[in-house]
Design a protein that fits this description.
The complex is a heterodimer of chains A (about 325) and B (about 300).
Chain A lengths: L1 H27 L5 H5 L10 H11 L5 H13 L13 H36 L4 H15 L2 H16 L14 H35 L2 H8 L4 H23 L1 H14 L5 H10 L3 H29 L1 H4 L2
Helix pairs in contact in A: 1-13, 5-6, 5-8, 5-11, 6-8, 7-8, 7-11, 8-10, 8-11, 9-10, 10-13, 11-12, 12-13
Chain B lengths: L8 H8 L5 H11 L1 H18 L1 H4 L31 H37 L1 H15 L3 H12 L3 H9 L2 H17 L2 H8 L4 H9 L4 H24 L11 H5 L2 H4 L6 H28 L7
Helix pairs in contact in B: 2-3, 3-5, 3-15, 5-6, 5-8, 5-9, 5-12, 5-15, 6-9, 7-8, 8-12, 9-12, 10-11, 12-15
The chains are: A mainly alpha (about 325), B mainly alpha (about 300).
């Protein structure tokens, strides 16, 4: 296990440096000069050339690209992601303000999806090719087809028409007023959770179907065990490993879900922060957020792989 | 002992499995995969609407009619009108063009480039493989929508740029799948044989390996189609895809839809149904195709 862990941790380093380099290059090929944008436009004629040169110098844009990348990477290592061009505050500060909301949304959506997906996926597998299976399959394929921003819009249409609901102006953390927080978060959680649950349900169904055809399941039937014991004790336990992996890899979908859902519900979270930063061409923020999301994704995948290795000894010794 | 009945292999297989006509093949697919056939029907209907939009659409999708703002769904405007009085049904019909164009070109471009990289990675192995694999790892570390968002933000909103933004995240996913198959194809004796005959590397790759990885390529291509349509809708919704007044389904839902929830809920309703139905069709068809092409999944 130790060697495996060390190997995986070492592999993260080049991936992250590569991701940082990619983000850096992407942000540097933006057409238009960032220094010009700060002065409020792409029209160079009206701006004093000296002022522009000063601004370039202040932003470090007159340095060679490699030096700029080095400076940025050194900053990243010290958790210094620069300051937002839009608000003038440090990126990390802006991020910490928005993180609790997005974290709550992500965790609640994951929890909801697991609570829904595993029982329904199991039911569909155990009752394969019956109407129960068909209904669950159609609902879960629907979850993959329906865009989450549209689910959000439908929730808003419903709430506005029937309850005269208006979007919340400010986020109430759960430790301040749990009920107000619940009211704010329940629909966004449903919106993100539906898609997440759809993917997990399909995975649970197909892995459980595979496991239920194994020889040891036939042995358990032959021993005269009850169905629930076979499904839970022998089936589900062995079907859970790919599902756990999936919950981790679906983290990418979750981030995408957060971006659109927070925009639909006008929630001031990290996802909306990305969209706003992109719209304002606030490149230090976009650069930092895209890198941090990639970082989070790599870490979550590592944790998932480690859980997997911990569950399944065959992987540990590879 | 020789028989006086010369039975060739071709004759035997012709005897065992009579060749089906195209109509019989289609009937067999409908019988065996009803959900897949339903998906194919949705896709065909969508294509027909996109191709014949001029003839089918009752109104000009760009033309506003300020006398008919927020008209309810009626015999004149089946799906109602939007805040500019534009007919929603006509805009949805023209929107099918953007959705299909972006869906097909982005997944085709992304999957083809990814497949080529996957085959090269598998065939050359060693340092080339290591380098390409790390590059794909890095690309995979970015969630699809975030990568598309970053690319779209650089390129600015336009249909061509959406295609680029949507296709790049597809590359590593296709490369992964195709590389795995190419690794086993490469070990076949016939590949060794053409190498021994002195075939050049590009010839071995293009003539002997690429045709044998077409099954996973087709699977990943159809699997990505629905996703590409969703990605286009999401980018347009966020204001980074196609720009007004182009009729795009995602764009039709952005901005105005929730703010007119009370006054005109149909603005937010029908484009969403169009997106969901289209993606649903591609997913159903893709699932059935995967089942048919992947023997491990048969009968599930």
């Amino acid at each position: 296990m130790g060697t495996y862990l060390a190997k995986r941790l070492l592999l993260i380093v080049p991936t992250l440096i590569g991701a940082a380099a990619l983000v850096f290059v992407i942000m540097r090929v933006i057409p238009g000069d960032v220094a010009l944008l700060i002065f409020g436009g792409d029209t160079a004629g009206q701006i004093d050339a000296k002022q522009l040169a000063d601004m370039r110098h202040r932003l470090g844009l007159d340095q060679p690209l490699v030096a700029q990348f080095g400076t940025w990477l050194w900053g990243v290592l010290r958790f210094d992601f620069g300051t937002s061009l839009w608000t003038g505050r440090p990126v990390i500060e802006e991020l910490l303000v928005r993180l609790p909301l997005s974290l709550e949304l992500a965790l609640a959506a994951t929890l909801v999806s697991v609570v829904i997906a595993i029982p329904f996926g199991m039911l569909a597998a155990v009752r394969q090719d019956t109407w129960i299976d068909y209904v669950i399959r159609v609902i879960s394929i629907g979850g993959l087809a329906i865009p989450s921003f549209w689910v959000g819009i439908l929730c808003i249409l419903f709430l506005v028409i029937w309850f005269g609901w208006g979007p919340p102006l400010e986020f109430t953390p759960p430790w301040v007023d749990p009920w107000a927080n619940f009211q704010q978060m329940v629909w966004p959680v449903v919106t993100v959770g539906y898609r997440y649950a759809a993917v997990t349900t399909r995975m649970t169904r197909s892995t459980l179907l595979e496991v239920l055809r194994e020889d040891y399941i036939r042995t358990a039937w032959a021993k005269g065990q009850r169905e629930w014991a076979i499904v839970f004790r022998h089936g589900l336990k062995n079907a859970m490993l790919p599902v756990i992996t999936l919950i981790g890899t679906e983290f990418a979908f979750l981030i995408g879900g957060l971006v659109v859902t927070e925009t639909v519900f006008t929630l001031n979270g990290v996802g909306r922060f990305v969209v706003d930063a992109v719209a304002h061409r606030d490149y230090p923020v976009v650069q930092a957020l895209v890198f941090l999301i990639a970082f989070g994704f790599v870490i979550v995948n590592l944790l998932v792989d480690l859980t997997y290795a911990w569950f399944d000894p065959r992987i540990r010794y590879r | 002992m020789a028989t006086n009945y010369p039975l060739t292999h071709a004759m035997a297989s012709a005897e065992l499995a009579p060749r089906l006509t195209v109509a019989e093949e289609v009937a067999k697919f409908i019988r065996e995969k009803p959900l897949g056939a339903a998906g194919a029907a949705i896709i065909l209907a969508m294509m027909a609407v996109a191709v014949f939009a001029e003839a089918l659409a009752p109104y000009d999708p760009y033309l506003g009619d300020y006398g008919a703002q927020f008209a309810r769904p009626s015999a004149d405007h089946w799906f109602g009108t939007d805040e500019f009085g534009r007919d929603i049904l006509s805009r949805i019909m023209y929107g099918a063009r953007i959705a299909l164009f972006v869906g097909f070109t982005a997944s085709f471009a992304g999957c083809s480039l990814g497949a080529l990289l996957g085959v090269i990675s598998a065939y050359y192995g060693g340092k080339v493989d290591l380098l390409l694999e790390r590059l794909m790892d890095i690309l995979l570390a970015f969630p699809q929508l975030i990568l598309a968002l970053a690319i779209a933000s650089i390129l600015g909103p336009s249909v061509r740029n959406v295609v680029i933004a949507v296709s790049i995240p597809v590359i590593p996913r296709a490369a992964r799948v195709v590389r795995a198959t190419a690794l086993s194809v490469k070990e076949n004796v016939y590949v060794e044989a053409v190498c021994a005959l002195g075939a050049s590397r590009p010839r071995v790759i293009l003539r002997h390996i690429v045709p044998n990885v077409m099954a996973p390529y087709t699977i990943i291509l159809t699997a990505q189609l629905g996703g590409a349509i969703l990605a286009e809708a999401a980018l347009s919704y966020l204001g980074l895809g196609t720009a007004e007044p182009t009729p795009s389904w995602g764009l039709m839902l952005s901005g105005s839809a929730p703010s007119y929830a009370e006054k005109a809920p149909w603005i937010g309703l029908f484009p969403g149904i169009a997106i969901s139905l289209g993606v649903f069709g591609f997913n159903l068809f893709g699932d059935s195709l995967r089942d048919a092409l992947d023997p491990k999944l048969r009968g599930r």
